[in-house]
Amino acid sequence: MPVACDHILRFQPIFRRYLWGGRRLGTVLGKPIGPEDDYAESWELVDHGADQSVVRFGPLAGTTLGELVRQHGAQLFGNSLFGAGASPSSFPLLMKLLDCNRTLSVQVHPNDEQAAKLTPPDLGKTESWVVLAAAPGSKIYAGLKPGVTRDDLAAALAAGHCETTLHEFEPRVGDCVFIPAGTIHALGAGLLIAEIQQASDTTFRLFDWNRVDAEGKPRPLHIEQSLATIDYARGPVGAQTPQPIGEANSALRRERLVECDKFVLDRVTFAAPTSIGGDGRFHVLCVAEGSARAANDPADQPLARGDVALAPAAAGAVEIVPYGKTVLLDISLP
Ligand SMILES: [Zn+2]
Known about the structure:
Elements: E1 9-10, E2 14-22, H1 24-27, E3 39-45, E4 47-48, E5 51-52, H2 65-77, E6 93-100, E7 106-108, H3 112-118, E8 127-134, E9 140-144, H4 150-158, E10 166-169, E11 176-179, E12 185-187, E13 191-198, E14 204-207, H5 223-229, E15 243-249, E16 252-259, E17 264-270, E18 274-277, E19 283-289, E20 292-294, E21 308-311, E22 317-322, E23 326-332
Antiparallel strand pairs: 1-21, 2-3, 3-6, 4-5, 6-13, 7-14, 8-11, 8-13, 9-10, 9-12, 15-16, 16-17, 17-23, 18-22, 19-21, 19-23, 20-22
């Protein structure tokens, strides 16, 4: 009998070291990083070419996310999303944790249409961030200041700067920022971020703060593609306003942080057992605060802060028991 894909899945993180990374993926989020001091990203859930999350626990241990999609698509995605004419060939979302020890480059991602022309076969990238921790004074740069045109931005870049054109603000822990494709953005030094995005790797870098790498070389810039991709009508971008979903009480509050055509991102704050899913779709869960135990989880450890789990559609409604007040990000397809 084939193994069923109807229980909580947890995956091996994949680390990326970049010049802007640090140590907090290990020290704050408990990830098994090595001794270096530039751990920038932990890819928690990915099915993108050779980058594959691998199941850690239970009967599917060792299976990649891509294999789950190909061999268990109906159980993973649910019948409403998997069937005639709508069978995804790969997992559509990518979940990362980012330790922004230094400010990231200023960048922009294309939308699906632009990506089809500029970077096939990769899709565009719409993404969203939730701030898990922020050092005092940490900044987010998102969107252009009001009235900044393509010519203004091109002139600033030609003069070796960019900051004067960017909208910036100091986010608080828990803030969510929605970055649709075409939005110019940079995460500032001091932030620890949970990021959900389309499973794509198309990034155009406009400005790298005039930095050089360990060999003294600047990282490549993609100024023409960036200028062609930016949505100049978008203007300044701030934190999302959470929308309450259903009745809140002292033990349970659900808020919608983002609803777009690529994903829905909710935040669940709870202090008593609650259930998630059961709507015929998969749910990506990420613990932002606290810890919890999910029913039907073959792992012998609770979900701790920074842990990510995937509840396949076939898992149905999954009971989650928190240890004290817990905050869970709950991501699904629209
Ligand atoms: Zn980005």
